[in-house]
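[worker-b] picked up task from shared queue
[worker-b] task type: protein-ligand structure
[worker-b] ligand name resolved to zinc ion; SMILES cross-checked against name lookup, match
[worker-b] sequence length check passed
[worker-b] input payload:
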Amino acid sequence: MTPAQVLAQFKKFGIPYAEYKDWKTHNRNHKGAWGPVHGLMVHHTGSDSKDQRELLYKGTADLPGPLCHFGLDQAGKIHLVGWGRANHAGSGDDDVLDAVIAEKPIPVDNESNTDGNSRFYGIEIWYSGTHPMTDAQYATLRLLAAAICDFHGWDEGSVIGHGEWGSPGKWDPGYKPGKMMDMDAVRSDIKATLAKGDPAPGKPEKPSKPAPAPKPRPGIPAFPGAYYFRPGAKNQYVTTLGRQLVKKGYGKFYKQGPGPQWTAVDRAAVKAFQLAHKELKGDADGYPGPLTWKMLFS
Ligand SMILES: [Zn+2]
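[worker-b] inference finished, payload out:
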């Protein structure tokens, strides 16, 4: 993601944020690789201090900043402190990285052989880890993870805790001294946030409702949003899209269906439609945008 894409996703997901100093160009890219990025790593800072922006921006004598990309204050606001390579992940286990890339269950970490700072976005949540984070922090964490996964087409399997990574002695994000949160439970909450459609901020125990379905107009139905057409998506719009593709002569892609589950078949059919139209050819990625939608239903 570029800084502009980060801000666009924050707006799409209603994430409260503030920009700190020159975060867009503040990084350690001169010290090592940055990207390809495969996931989001969750940390606690180990401190309950109310303003940790400068620490995360500047770092310490031993560990120069930025120390993450996203700082998360107690009220649930994200502070953007850097973009690019950041000192948050250290070395970890290549088996864990492979699992994150494949979005498979995370194996037990037993090695520190792989640079994580080039591979993960990092969020530092402002709390000690010896008690639970605030509800507001947890709600924003879920939204942030969903926003990042939504952008990249990832699922919740791309989110890990630092304590799962293979850096010795790490147990963040914690909920009591020395104890890491149940990250499988956190991932399943993130999955729920991702599945809800365009989410709005809300406490985890009271999930926000999905965006209301746009009213169909006679002629061209309203484009519901890119969110509804992504790996893992299952909704009525995927069916509507598939049926229209069949109508337009792309039925050969569908050995069965079309149905509500977004699959590689839908993507292949959309891509073929895009490649057949010069206005769409340049960005024929198989994911429908407003123009593809409009042309498909015209
Ligand atoms: Zn950490």
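[worker-b] attaching auto-annotations
[worker-b] The longest helix spans residues 135-152.
[worker-b] releasing lock
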